[in-house]
Please model this.
Amino acid sequence: MVKITVCIGSSCHLKGSRQIVEQLQRLVKLNKLDSDVDLSGTFCMGQCADGGVAVAVNGEYHSVRPETAGDFFDGVVVKSLNAAM
Ligand code: FES
Model:
């Protein structure tokens, strides 16, 4: 199980956290990973200064932009899943 927490605080909201949540939800469904990925939102994680939206994967921070959400999913999320298996 991989735990993904997307910041939906105001700064990240402006940077597109909503699109990122939607894209991740779509990718999780598409890859039939509903039971392997726990996707949730959280308020400000104190990473506002980063260029993208703060997304934690198993507690590790990543800076993600809507246009890089696909790469982030393939790289970080799928990699973490494979490592957990
Ligand atoms: S609003 Fe997302 S880290 Fe602060």
User: Anything to note?
Assistant: Residues 7, 9-12, 44-48, 54 surround FE2/S2 (inorganic) cluster (CB under 6 Å).
